[in-house]
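Exercise 7. Given the encoded structure of a 269-residue chain, write a plausible sequence.
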């Protein structure tokens, strides 16, 4: 899917939790397959609100005779994201993408641990499909403060049951799955001898920083999909920079959003 504008329409919406939902966008023309971890910038067509496009990771992708479809997951955080929850089915949408760098799916081997927190599930859910096609075994660690805040847990359970994966749920209060922060649960599993050849993760920055520390302590290669506010998505506005290890900065929309965890200076985040 070369970077370009594509017209689409809202084909459906499903509520996932009290404040998160998924969208399916039906594309009006065929596109190439995005790499897991890449994102798109979207806005309603023909309107002025919201003015700026919003960036969302691809949660699912498929092709059909009408041009294909994209799945996205959105957390309501203000008027802009709420507008997507209120947009009527059939509404026209503009899609720019795919943008940024994705996870190294071509180089993956062994057993992979996927770690999602908050609204970080979408790129990892999409990655599962690519891993299944390559016959790669995976463990998905899905974390939230409490059971009602878990995003897509039932979807993930179905994917694990049908494929080569396993779902490990972690909640801070122990209301579902294992008790503890998801990165702590991950480290307990590694210390107990479970095989992890690489880590892929997406979620809040504090969680990604904790995961980078776990990766360093356990000597496991880690890639993180960074979450930052983006205005242009093209590396021009410099609104999404993060501090790089060794000095300087990285643009999340261009050098990221997926980067090796070792490339970030987490002490300056």
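Solution.
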């Amino acid at each position: 899917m070369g970077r370009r504008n594509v017209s689409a329409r809202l084909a459906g919406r499903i509520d996932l939790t009290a404040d998160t939902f998924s969208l399916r966008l039906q594309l009006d023309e065929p596109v190439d397959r995005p790499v897991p971890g890449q994102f798109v910038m979207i806005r309603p067509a023909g309107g002025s609100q919201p003015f700026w496009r919003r960036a969302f990771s691809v949660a699912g992708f498929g092709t059909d005779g009408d041009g294909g479809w994209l799945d996205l997951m959105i957390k309501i955080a203000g008027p802009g994201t709420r507008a997507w929850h209120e947009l009527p089915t059939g509404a026209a949408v503009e899609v720019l993408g795919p943008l940024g760098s994705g996870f190294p799916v071509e180089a993956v081997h062994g057993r992979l641990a996927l770690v999602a927190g908050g609204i970080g599930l979408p790129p990892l859910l999409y990655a599962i499909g690519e891993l299944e096609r390559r016959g790669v075994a995976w463990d998905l660690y899905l974390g939230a403060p409490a059971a009602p805040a878990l995003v897509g847990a039932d979807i993930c359970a179905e994917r694990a049951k049908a494929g080569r994966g396993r779902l490990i749920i972690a909640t801070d209060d122990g209301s579902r799955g294992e008790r503890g922060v998801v990165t702590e649960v991950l480290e307990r599993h590694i210390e107990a001898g479970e095989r992890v050849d690489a880590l892929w993760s997406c979620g809040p920055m504090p969680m990604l920083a904790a995961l980078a520390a776990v990766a360093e302590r356990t000597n496991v290669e880690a890639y993180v999909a960074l979450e930052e506010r983006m205005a242009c998505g093209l590396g021009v506005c410099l609104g999404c920079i993060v501090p790089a290890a060794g000095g300087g900065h990285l643009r999340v929309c261009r050098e990221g959003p997926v980067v090796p965890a070792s490339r970030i200076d987490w002490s300056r985040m």
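Remark. The mean pLDDT is 92. Students should compare their own answers with the one above.
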